Amino acid sequence: MADLRLSVLDQSPVPAGSTPAQALANSLDLAQHVDALGYTRLWYSEHHAMDLLACTAPEILITRAAAATKRIRVGSGGIMLPHYAPLKVAEVFRTLHAMFPNRIDLGIGRAPGGGQLEAFALKRDRQAAVRDDFPQHLAELRAFLNPERWSEYVDAKGPHPFSRIRVAPDAPGAPDIWLLGSSMWSSVTAAQEGLPYAYAHFFSSAGTRQAIEYYQRNFQPSKFSDGRSQPETTLAIGVICATTQEEADHLHASVRLLQRRIRMDDRRPVASPEVALHELNELPTAPNPLLSFTRGSFEEPESEWPRYIVGTPDKVAARLHGLASELDLSELIVNTITHDHEARKRSYTLLAEAMQVNATITNAREAVLA
Known about the structure:
- By secondary structure, the chain is an alpha/beta fold.
- The protein has one domain (5-246, 308-369): Luciferase-like domain (TIM Barrel, Alpha-Beta Barrel), CATH 3.20.20.30.
- The chain has helices at residues 20-37, 58-68, 86-99, 116-121, 134-145, 184-193, 208-218, 245-263, 273-280, 313-327, 341-354, 357-369, and strands spanning 5-10, 41-44, 73-80, 104-109, 176-181, 197-200, 233-241, 308-311, 331-335.
- Strand 6 (197-200), helix 7 and strand 7 form a beta-alpha-beta unit.
- The longest helix is centred in the last third of the chain and has 19 residues, at 245-263.
């Protein structure tokens, strides 16, 4: 699988001792770096009220990054649709598409991107009964971006009233819509809707094979232009590359502590490897005095593939190729978090060289021109 494409998921991590503003500056620097290296796309996640991550408004990061780069596709990984009116999301991404034609991806998710209190504060209607309106709002969003879909909603009363709305700015084409998730629900929905599917393996690795293989087996081609005739799947996975295994393991300590802290509902900034190793060697304090924990209960649950692949470039490249081959994937999205920004950039550089990312782009261009 020599032409395996690589992309980037950036969560704008905040290093301990730094600031969220610096984290956002780091994200812009990283955007230009991975654009030059030849990565296929760059997505920004949406998280709320976390000291750990500065990515609360991916649409703003997309605008800034797309303006500062030349060729890489830029998008959301993703927009948490339950927080927003579908029309507003359509307007924002139509604007981005008009400004940066054929470079914008609209990844959609239904997770809150924060805790219960933040989700309540972000609710469109706090008086309404709790119900899952995601399928309805996904359908509306797709129709706002691709008006031909309103033909599905004609009934005895006539056309859907929203079909009279003209979403501005009007421009040829539309952003590419992806469904994101880490569960069978998202897999089933993406297959039924004929949408490309991105699985968040770095977040939840236990159901990766089941979700991706179900999607690939049960994909239903879309008759509309915003869908697909064939399934298209990608997988987001954590990676840390360094020149030696020892250095990679040292950098990975920050992520290991981050993962432990998150399981304890602790969203502090990314610790340095030295602080992380010290804390990892201590028995964690239970967030609730009525609960007790052992060190083993905070280890990552075993799964077929780890959430983070850590090591030298050749080792990481071999494991990524093996994973992609096993799941029949033509693209992987890499998420790298380190305390040191330069180490993060270096990891992406080493990986791009080992995976021959620029050669993949050259081969793809030649195939189009042939």
